[in-house]
Description:
Layout: E1 2-7, H1 14-19, E2 23-25, E3 28-31, E4 34-37, H2 44-53, E5 57-60, H3 64-75, E6 80-85, H4 93-104, E7 109-113, H5 118-133, H6 138-143, H7 145-150, E8 152-157, H8 162-166, H9 172-180, E9 186-190, E10 193-198, H10 203-217, E11 225-231, H11 235-246, E12 254-258, H12 261-267, E13 272-278
Parallel strand pairs: 1-2, 1-6, 6-7, 11-12
Antiparallel strand pairs: 3-4, 3-5, 8-9, 8-13, 9-10, 11-13
Amino acid sequence: MIKIVVDSSCDLPDEYIKEKDIKVIPLYFKIKDRFYKDGIDIKSEEFVELLKKEKNITTSQPPIQDFINTYKDIIEKGDEIISIHITSKSSGTFNSAKIAKEEINTDKIDVLDSENISVGYGFVVKNIIDLIENGIPKKEILSKFNKIVSKVQLFFTLNTLEYVYKGGRVNDVKGLVLNILDIKPILHMKEAIPKIYKIVRGRNNSIKELNRIVTENIKDTKGKFELAFVHLDAKKELEELKNSILSKVNPKYHFTKIVGSALGVHSGPGALGVSINYLEE
């Protein structure tokens, strides 16, 4: 049997993770002198409050030993592993997983880079699980992986760029200027990193534009797509966005998720995103 291992930045519904028996290895974040395991040591509501008042929150990938322990436990039960992780261009998690595989020295583990984040990463994982459940051999799944990754798009907007430049993603001066001008860029995942898709001024305009972009990108799919909606401390705005999009289109499947804590450190409160999973014809 093939078991799926992910890290906690993979945003999928809790019930789905439980149903599919996905093994989740938590990322860590640090507040003052205390380390927290993402998704385990703190609830999302508590995390948002800490995020608003604490100036210095840092994140880190799981220790290599966490991967080794999880991998060994699965292999000892006679199963194989596909371990899929957050884009290696944003985190060292993928490399930690690769080192763990090398230390165990087995061909029963395959470590893959989703080249995505959050619910985009989640859809990459879901697509692999769908193939496994359809009886596709592991070798064929691995050969299709690049195509699987290319079928997922993620668009998102942030309420503030403060947390992005805190994490070194944007130059401090540039980030300050953009905030003063009330610039709310629409970003998307391209070549495994977040890139600006469109520049918009004002929160309401950014949400309207996100709505338009998502709708535009699925108009020619003939209904063969899935959607995922994600937010951090923006539930009302996300529900309005979701209801508006779903009034115009009919995805095969959709879900809503709160951004995990480790990613939330960089997005900040008010982050909103939508991922599109294009299905095979």
